[in-house]
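ok so I'm stuck.
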Amino acid sequence: MASTSPALCRSRVVRLRKTAGANAGSGFGAAKGAGVYATGTVTLNGTAITNNTADSDRGRAEGGGLWTSGSTLEMTNTDVTGNTASGTESGTSLGTRGGGLAVTSGTTTITGGAISNNTATVDTSGTHEVFGGGLFAGGDLEMTGTAVSGNTA
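replied:
not stuck anymore, here's the structure
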């Protein structure tokens, strides 16, 4: 039987460092959530998500540090720093979203912590857009007392 309890991380520092990549040849691939790829209910408390890279050379790159969709995400005193989402594609309109965090739908509550020095980039010869060097929020977002600085898109 599958557990229905939420994912919970309560620690001083959990450093997540990873690279997610996509290379689908002539098709399309997406790189999402190099540090954390989350669905369902996720609670992060006192966590650091640092130096992750979501890199796709044939599609969308989303959430270098964390990606979630249709989820409930609660972050308290969590730092998201130094993450990158980088897409490379030509001819289509795919783009890159959220160097630090990409929340494509669902409900997100962020209290305290910092979202800093994250980057969203796209290297392209087509029509592409880049959204949210630090955070892309496509769902409901409530943010209180969180420092957001030094992010680029």
